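Support case: uracil complex. Customer-provided input:
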Amino acid sequence: MNKIKRLHLLKTLYTYQSLGIEYTDDIQDLNQTRASLKSLPNDLQALKNITYNCHLCQLSKTRKNVVFGEGDIDADIMFIGEGPGANEDETGKPFVGKAGELLTKIIENVLNIKREQVYIANIVKCRPPNNRVPTPEEVKSCTPYLMKQIDLIRPKIIITLGATAYNNLTNDKTPISKIRGEILPFGNAKIIPTFHPSFLLRNPSAKKYVFADMKKVKGIKDEGFSSNH
Ligand code: URA
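Agent response - structure generated as follows:
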């Protein structure tokens, strides 16, 4: 076996190991391995541990910390952003920089609940270098973890922040400016797309749209998540 083949084999074996596989009879294609992420654990802590050892995409090479997500594991409301930035990469926590401060204000002042009462995650769990948009390949590698997280937390409302979160979670490529504020079915939950807090920092005049979108969320929450909006 030549050196390249050996390195490829080693990488595949590390990937299996990161998925919790302890033994394999034969080495399958990595794409098949991704599909088998369906068998991820039904336990958030175990899932977190798997992501901490994930090397499925190139972001794993440059990350300092995996940003798994945080909040109430029984939250009715879940926020999904794009991906960790520098502060999040440093701390391992989502939305802790300037955009995070604004998100916290939105949660506390408009939804009238504490940040700890929602769950916050991202489309990708490792920082894309220079805060670039994650590539389709990176999103594809990471999506099963997020879907499993949603599955386990079972939020009633998912608020996607910005185009990357909405477009990738739903596969709908409608521009965020057209779709924001809509209430859309997503399995047993509803998705409400809105602008990303980083966009609001650059465009403060758009805050009124997010305020309107969050008022809708508050209305649904105050009705016990039972309304048929
Ligand atoms: N932007 C995001 O999309 N996610 C974070 O966690 C921080 C900034």
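The first strand starts at residue 70 and ends at 71.

Case will auto-close in a few days if no follow-up is received.
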